[in-house]
Amino acid sequence: MSGTLSTHRSDTMTGLTTPTAPDAAERGSRLRNALLLPFRARTLREGLHLLLNFPVALAAFVTAVTGLAVSAGLLITFVGLPLMGLVLLCLRGFGRLERARARSLLRMEIAEPEPLRLRGERTGPMAWMGAMLRSNVSWRAVAYALLGFPWGVFTFCVVLVLWSAGWSMLTFPLWFWIVPASTDEPGVGINPGAEEGEWSWVWDGPLEVVMAVVLGALLLMLASVLIRFLAHGDRALVSLLLGPSAAATRMWQLESDRSQVVDASAEDLRRIERDLHDGAQARLVALAMDLGLAKEKLTEDPEAAARMVDEAHGEVKLALQELRDLARGIHPAVLTDRGLGPALSSLAGRCTVPVTVDVELDWRPAEAIEGIAYFTASELLQNVSKHSGARRASVDIWRSQDRLMLQVTDDGRGGADPASGSGLSGLAERLAAVDGLLAVHSPEGGPTTITAALPWRDRVAARR
Hints:
Blueprint: H1 24-36, H2 41-73, H3 80-105, H4 125-134, H5 136-170, H6 172-175, H7 178-182, E1 188-190, E2 201-203, H8 206-242, H9 246-300, H10 302-330, H11 333-338, H12 340-349, E3 355-360, H13 367-388, E4 393-400, E5 403-410, H14 423-432, E6 437-441, E7 448-455
Parallel strand pairs: 3-4
Antiparallel strand pairs: 1-2, 4-5, 5-7, 6-7
Helix pairs in contact: 2-3, 2-5, 2-8, 3-4, 3-5, 3-8, 5-8, 9-10, 12-13
């Protein structure tokens, strides 16, 4: 699930503010920022990146075109495929260089793409070559080499021309005197050495020097704006073709979520085993021993045997209650039979804090989503009982488009923080495993509002 998680059931109205005109200090700050833009570190870094686009793109383009053309022509021989694999490996190396260059000069956060995946347990040159040819990272590196060359030529020319002209004109007062001092020309201009009667234009006076500086500053400001714009194009190209693909990112996320679900399931199984071993199983073992002793005393001391049977009857009731509690922890029968409303009302009745429950659903969601919502509410209410110090709490459930929304609010002391390693972080991970989200708003002093969003899936059975 993506997007912003709204933690309110209804939209809140926000006041409209009338924009005010910028004051003199703000205008001065804007002018200063504009004048300093050509000299900022970001402008220089991004301009250097754009200048380096051409030599790097030229090398990658020649490697891609020459290498793929030659290897494709040699496919009829046994040399073609290995050569193509080596070419793709070189282009992946160019991609690694470009990612490093983008991190260094563009300050771009870009992850490494997925590594080569060999099929099965096969190893060796042939398995490596097959993985290289199948990998979409390799062919996206080819696309970057082909598209990056014309883009690199364009960015190189734009930055080189504007920077050369801008910096040379801005520094004109520092070097213009060299021309008449070291040559026969009177100055810098158009046809400066023209004979009498011929048209010429020479910058050799104070006015021309000032004009050159102003024009150079304007060109550098224009170059700075274009550099920022072209750098965004570089970022988009690198992210699209050299970063991890959306499918690979999703696959890694699913693998991570699957491992979290497996770990959570294993922990639940261990908890159930521990509860059975330490609770009902131990009680039933003691019950069997008591009944064995009662059987032995049945003929010798019927009254003692009757007392032992009576005690065993009490132990049976306790064992049955423990088994019911354990079964409720696995999946409560009331949730299966009657849905979230009655199940949460039963859950609220066992909470040490008075809890109001409000469920607004036209029909029941899928069984899995319903169970996750129930156990999420159960864990949150346990936190309210143990840690909040609240006097009252509420549980609200409603549907918002394609989400099932669950909100638990209490008037306790607040300060709940998932980053502190509490149970909320584990709950957030379990929700993320099914594309769910958890939002926590718990300032010091309270109140605490925790909202969970689960993907809505319709129940296969008849709607309630």
